[in-house]
Amino acid sequence: MTIQFPQKFLWGGAVAANQVEGSYLKDGKGLSTSDCTPNGIFGDIIDRSQTDITSIKDTAIDFYNRYPEDIALFAEMGFSCLRISLAWSRIFPNGDENQPNEKGLEFYDKLIAEMAKYNIEPMITLSHYEMPYQLVKQYGGWGNRKLIDFFTNYAKTVFNRYKGKVKYWLTFNEINMSLHEPFTGVGLARDSSKEQIYQAIHHQLVASARAVKLCHQIMPEAKIGNMLLGAVAYPLTSKPEDVWATHLENHGWLYFGDVQVRGYYPSYMTRYFKENNITLTITEQDREDLKETIDFISFSYYMSCCGTADSSLRQKGNILDMVPNPHLKASEWGWQIDPTGIRYLLNLLYERYQKPLFIVENGLGAKDKVETDGSINDDYRIDYINDHLVQVHEAIEDGVEVLGYTSWGPIDLISASKAEISKRYGFIHVDLNEDGSGTLNRTRKKSFYWYQSVIKSNGNTLK
Length: 463
What we know:
This protein is an alpha/beta fold.
């Protein structure tokens, strides 16, 4: 079968401000929660205002200064879309100011203009694993209802600034991740109760809905979506207990989609809250706000997992506790490789919601070897992405409406989990070592030319 993607399919890559920009506290930027986990989201939480500790993220890959070179490389690959995030604390350093930091906005003015120069469509995530740390310190993070207004003010500011320039928006990155890492997701202590976490998530869901309404009012031509961590689970066995446990496990992340697509809490969460003694404060205004629903659904997909009634089989993965699939191989980091899972997930979401879908993260983290001639032969990355894209095409043939695909991260960047550079995802190599040494020079890997040919042929070179 000849592989051909839809004519308007968006091809590109995805990065996050806190993993590429660097320029820690430059031009008026405030401390973020990402800055306060200098060793990654599983590391210690440190108030950086009280210590002189440093982090590789402080410089990262210096995208803040080198973005023209990087955008040119993305354009050379043929990108029609680049997903970026705004550092909220660049624009509102403390999060609660009435007026934004103009220097922060000016940086994103230039970045968006640079993309426009190459006809690269920006997709902007408003909050990608970070928020102003002062909102945690002074207000208690998303546990405080006041953050809804602070986030709404931030969203309104950037919508007005970039209307007519940015067509695609996302509210919160992998919003369901807050259940597993509450400090990074909602700014709560890691030992917070389930009730505290779900209340904070509720505030975030309301804030997201208010941002959606603002987007529709300020930029009616734009599209705004949510973003899920696509943690799809299969039953480990055909035992009814395992099938039901898997059903419940998938509910754990699908409920975020249900609220944002349908505009209200699903009935199965009512039972979950009751059985776990969780009582949420939900106002009538909240219920009204939630009725403003998203235009499309975006998600990350790296691996699938299994569900079982036997909790002793769970293993700690990158973010989630996972039950491994005995039929799959795994990457160097223990992430199981399952290309068919992306087709399954696309069909699952489309059948459930009948909304357009966008794959905004997918890729392979690996230790790359630089040969003596400077080349990097990353065939394993080519194989991984090729096999996933073939399954994306199969889903499109199944009738699923897929808007685009942005690989994670098209250029080597600092990993979120452990703030390491050795776990590389890019088509572009960055000369940077774990100790911070290196020239930061950019070089093209073998996968650079492969992805370039895939985009140019609109998928026809996939096999």
